[in-house]
Design a protein that fits this description.
heterodimer, A: alpha/beta, GMP Synthetase, Chain A, domain 3, 2 domains, nine-stranded mixed sheet, 14 helices, 31% helix, B: alpha+beta, 3 domains, five-stranded antiparallel sheet, 47% helix
Chain lengths: 418, 516
């Protein structure tokens, strides 16, 4: 009798498994993958226009059994109080379940980013389980919906690939900041720094007098790029203070921020700077940051003082004036002093901009200030945000020369032309 | 659960075939007679026992000794004896004998002659291929060795192939097998005891061990287990294995089965016990641990780094063969966020036109693969290549082109099938293949969570297993003093200890660094 019961029990075990399993089973072919979410202002209070950029998985695959001629992506825009409930509402137009597994970017129009209400909508990204914290925040000049539908990358037919590569390369060369959502929440809650978000647009100026002359000292859309290439530019940063956009930084300014900020992962920068030997030309240098910035602070003076030393290694890669500075110690010194001066003025201009225009800093200096106080309370009383605009800041660039190109010596211009 | 199953199995095993005792008993009573003074009676008696002349290969040669003219009768079974030896060493000398006083031992020119006094001995000697001589006026018979059982010669090992090292394998003749082992261990302490394990067919098992190495309790345990068998016939070791193993329902084997004399020898030298049997081109090695199924002889024949590289690959392959199909199911149905974006889109894209869910797709292909495997094994030799081509065609290209199976599934199943071949041991191979299916089911039901819990249960079970008193995962878990030959092996010079779980009489097998 006892044995019989046991055998019955054994036969019941598989049923337990079958009856309880498969809770969150979700076949891949029952889902669509959202690559980007666009947020726009709507004329109804408490709601925003949300756009989904949905990838077509069949594009870019070459399987036996026939390929497809379908579109790469589709965009859907709907009005919704947040992007959680939208996942179901949008099923009125989209056939399958919405999945955020491949979500790469959250695109916000400049208009919404400058709205005080913006922070209310973005914080729902922190609530949703499926939105990863390493999703990038992008601010666009035009409406986010327009950006997502107009953006038509060449070669990179799969949209997630485009955003991933574009943003990663942009961060590597320093044209755009690392604007992961995680950093946004951290900086916003820290309430001492500026958060920089990637600035992008498909709204590129076509007339000659509208774009800037110095190529990278500009925002996305202001640079003259010709040819059949991607219709979107990613350049510069949108500046957020307390969760609201208050201004922009150009590509060069963003590079300066990243050079000064020790936490940024920038490794080397190729940039043109004026040639001290011939005013018509520019030298190309590779700037590498091999040591950390040293920040000395005196918070007890009135006004508080900050002294920043930025050690840089510079490779001078071109010599258009054909002056051969390697040969001559005096020339090297001249090169060094003009270069340091050039950089210091550029940096000081940005620091002043941050003090006067933004009234907060994006360089992460508040962390150094904390060390100067014995208790957190002291630091709170000091009120970094209020004190920063009055601080006396000076920046010292220390250059160490690395290589002067593969072949350091070139023949002189006169020697060839005579 | 296993207790219940064991009980059920035990009940069946204890049932005796009806009516067997009658005939066996009558057979025994005729054999119990002693040898008569009258040669006529003896001849009649042997003829009756062997049903001469209905039994066609029973031969009787009657003649007279050349000088004394005494009658002589030689009995033998022609199919299992060397007839030429009988002619040259027995019949010839008897006929040509010129000394009337010569005894039979002086006449016959074979390596040994045994004195037999009962009919039982006569029958036994004839059954083992010896010839028996009856002489007029003597109450005893004589037997001399001239057995010649037919069989293969020593051939290459087919299932356990090595790149480097000896190629010969055991054959169906136990004498040859013993000789192959004696060739490797030239030591008088190598014991080759025999136990007769079946009542009707009288199958004999050779128990091989090294006397001053192997643990006596272990040897006694195995001998007892063999002696306690009450079976009519056990043809060979593959069948014997199933009689002596402790858990017949267990997924994992507990006796190692090897066709390589060098492998058997190295186990003998570590203190294991080897069973050999006629009609078995292999040996049983016991006790066996998980590692012995996982290892091959090549691991030690190749140099330290190469051998370990092979082990590394094999360990990886073992996990791939168990897990890859299951992981694919789990990740695509439950945890799609784990897949890199490109792969996710590729998988999703390939699934657009396919009718079945991933779980069924994988199951379908795995079953198809097993079908090809089984069919390929049973197919007559000339048709072998055809099956391969048809299988590859149907499973691969056609299924994909017909949009029945997505191409990624083909990759996954092919990989899991291919990697399963790296485990050369047949028993472990089967175990892994079945376990793979269980994992596929648990992944289909619960995703990674199901796989993890089943894996944990499996590990519990593995650690609880024992083979002849030795824990299955020893010496890793529980830890025993040993030379550390588990997943990876040490440099040969440093493997200087015998496995502690066997409790050998001599732990050390070489001095440190193996140099004096």
């Amino acid at each position: 009798m006892k044995q019989n019961n046991l055998i019955k029990l054994i036969f019941l075990i598989p049923f337990i498994l079958i009856l309880t399993g498969c809770w969150d089973l979700k076949g891949l072919d029952r889902q669509v993958f959202v690559i980007g979410i666009g947020l726009d202002v709507s004329d109804e209070k408490g709601k925003i226009d949300i756009t989904y950029l949905i990838a077509n998985p069949e594009v870019g695959t070459s399987f036996a059994g026939g390929g497809t001629e379908e579109d790469t992506v589709m965009t859907v825009t709907m009005r919704s109080p947040d992007f959680l409930s939208l996942r179901h509402s949008v099923n009125a137009a989209v056939a399958r379940e919405i999945s955020y597994d491949l979500l790469k970017v959250i695109v916000v129009s400049e208009e919404l980013a400058k709205d005080e209400e913006f922070i209310r909508f973005l914080y729902s990204a922190e609530k949703d389980r499926e939105i990863k914290r390493n999703t990038y925040l992008i601010v666009t000049k035009e409406k986010a919906a327009e950006f997502l539908s107009k953006n038509d990358p060449k070669f990179l037919t799969r949209p997630h690939k485009f955003y991933e590569n574009m943003i990663q390369r942009g961060i590597e060369v320093g044209f755009i900041p690392n604007s992961e959502l995680h950093h946004f929440f951290r900086v916003t809650e820290e309430d001492a720094n500026l958060f920089l978000a990637t600035y992008a647009t498909t709204n590129i100026r076509q007339k000659e007098d509208e774009y800037r002359i110095n190529e990278m000292d500009a925002l996305a859309g202001d640079v003259r790029i010709e040819g059949e290439t991607n219709s979107a530019n990613f350049l510069g940063a949108a500046v957020f203070l307390e969760g609201m956009m208050i201004g922009t930084l150009t590509g060069v300014e963003n590079r300066i921020v990243m050079l000064l900020h020790d936490a940024s992962s920038i490794t080397d920068i190729l940039a043109p700077i004026p040639d001290p030997f011939h005013e018509d030309y520019e030298l190309t240098v590779r700037i590498r940051k091999q040591h950390n910035t040293s920040v000395e602070m005196n918070v007890h003076d009135m006004p508080p003082k900050i002294h920043v030393t930025l050690p840089l290694t510079v490779d001078v890669l071109t010599d258009p004036s054909m002056e051969n500075p390697v040969d001559n110690k005096k020339k090297v010194e001249k090169l060094r002093s003009t270069m340091e001066e050039f950089m210091e003025t550029k940096i000081m201009a940005l620091v002043e901009k941050s003090q006067k225009e933004f009234k907060a800093e994006p360089f992460g200096w508040s962390l150094y200030a904390r060390k100067e106080f014995k208790t957190l309370k002291d630091y709170m009383e000091f009120d970094w945000m209020r004190t920063y605009p009055e601080m006396k800041i000076d920046v010292d660039v220390e250059i160490r020369f690395g290589q002067f190109g593969r072949q350091p010596k070139t023949p002189s211009y006169k020697g060839i032309r005579d | 659960m296993f207790k219940v199953l064991k009980k059920l199995a035990g009940k069946k095993r204890n049932k005796r075939p009806v009516g067997s005792e009658d005939t066996l008993a009558s057979q025994a009573s005729t054999k119990d007679q002693s040898i008569s003074y009258q040669i006529e009676d003896n001849i009649k008696q042997v003829k009756k026992i062997f049903h001469y002349p209905d039994n066609k290969d029973i031969k009787l040669r009657e003649c007279k000794i050349g000088a004394s003219e005494k009658r002589v009768a030689i009995f033998f079974i022609s199919t299992i004896t060397d007839v030429r030896t009988i002619e040259d060493s027995a019949i010839g000398p008897i006929l040509k004998n010129k000394h009337p006083d010569a005894t039979i031992k002086e006449m016959i020119a074979t390596q040994n002659i045994t004195h037999l006094s009962t009919m039982r001995d006569v029958v036994q000697n004839m059954n083992t291929g010896n010839a028996v001589i009856f002489i007029e006026g003597e109450t005893s018979a004589y037997a001399f060795e001239c057995a010649n059982f037919q069989g293969r010669s020593v051939e290459k090992a087919e299932n356990e192939v090595v790149i480097k090292g000896p190629k010969e394998a055991f054959t169906e003749k136990v004498v040859v097998n013993l000789s192959l082992i004696r060739k490797r261990i030239k030591n008088e302490d190598l014991m080759a005891e025999t136990v007769t394990i079946s009542t009707r067919s009288k199958n004999e098992v050779f128990i091989l061990y090294i006397r001053n190495l192997a643990n006596e309790k272990l040897v006694d345990n195995i001998k007892n287990r063999l002696k306690n068998l009450d079976v009519d016939a056990i043809q060979n070791l593959s069948l014997l294995e199933q009689y002596i193993e402790e858990r017949p329902f267990s997924m994992f084997p507990s006796v190692l089965y090897s066709e390589r004399p060098d492998r058997a020898t190295s186990f003998l030298e570590d203190g294991h016990i080897i069973l050999l049997m006629d009609n078995s081109p292999d040996s049983l090695i016991l006790p066996a641990t998980f590692w012995s199924f996982f290892h091959t002889s090549d691991d030690h024949y190749l140099r330290f780094i190469f051998g370990n590289f092979a082990r590394f690959i094999r360990a990886g392959a073992m996990f791939i063969t168990i897990f890859i199909s299951a992981i694919f199911i789990a990740v695509t149905t439950y945890h799609s966020e784990m897949i890199p974006a490109d792969l996710l889109l590729a998988i999703a894209g390939s699934r657009e036109k396919v009718p079945f869910p991933v779980f069924f797709e994988i199951l379908l292909m795995e079953i198809a693969f097993e079908l090809i495997r089984e069919a390929g094994l049973r197919v007559p030799n000339p048709m072998g290549p055809t099956i391969g081509i048809v299988g590859a065609l149907i499973l691969g290209q056609a299924a994909v082109e017909a949009n029945i199976i997505s191409p990624i599934v083909i990759i996954v199943v092919a990989l899991s099938g291919l990697t399963s071949f790296t485990i050369s041991d047949v028993s472990l191979n089967f175990a892994l293949r079945i376990i793979r299916f269980i994992f596929i089911f648990s992944a289909g039901l619960f995703g990674i969570f199901g796989m993890t819990s089943f894996f944990v249960m499996g590990i519990f079970y593995l650690t609880s297993l024992k083979s002849f008193g030795v824990p299955f995962l020893a010496p890793m878990s529980p830890h025993y003093v040993a030379s550390g030959d588990t997943i990876f092996r040490r440099v040969l010079k440093n493997e200087n200890l015998r496995p502690g779980y066997l409790k050998p009489k001599d732990m050390k097998k070489k001095s440190d660094e193996a140099v004096k």
